[in-house]
Design goal:
mainly alpha, 65% helix, rod-shaped
């Protein structure tokens, strides 16, 4: 969402500076692609979180509940209210995932 807002501001700045029509048109297309990307990315994140939840539920007997991976996965699901009795509609409003703690090459 941040990228979309930044691109909107940049496009307005380009218009105010009377930049080349072709450049403005092309950047408008970039903005449109960014706007389409956000909902798709959000939906894929929710789907993957739900798959992670399902995996934890079906494999709970085989997993180490004290392990770092398991604890991190449960925390992530809790942050996004996946697997709770609350509706997942909340997740579709705004999702922000902190990936700064992941090591290079590590996936969650």
């Amino acid at each position: 969402m941040k990228e979309v807002e930044e691109n909107k501001a940049k496009l307005e700045k380009m218009k105010l500076e009377n930049r080349d029509f072709y450049d403005i048109k092309k950047f408008g297309e970039v903005l449109g692609e960014s706007e389409m990307m956000v909902p798709d990315s959000r939906n894929r994140l929710i789907q993957n979180l739900q798959e992670l939840h399902q995996y934890l539920v079906t494999k709970s007997d085989d997993l180490n509940a004290e392990g770092e991976w398991f604890i991190t996965a449960k925390k992530l699901l809790c942050e996004h209210s996946i697997g709770n009795s609350e509706s997942n509609e909340k997740n579709q409003e705004s999702i922000e995932t902190n990936i700064e703690s992941l090591k290079e090459g590590e996936a969650f």
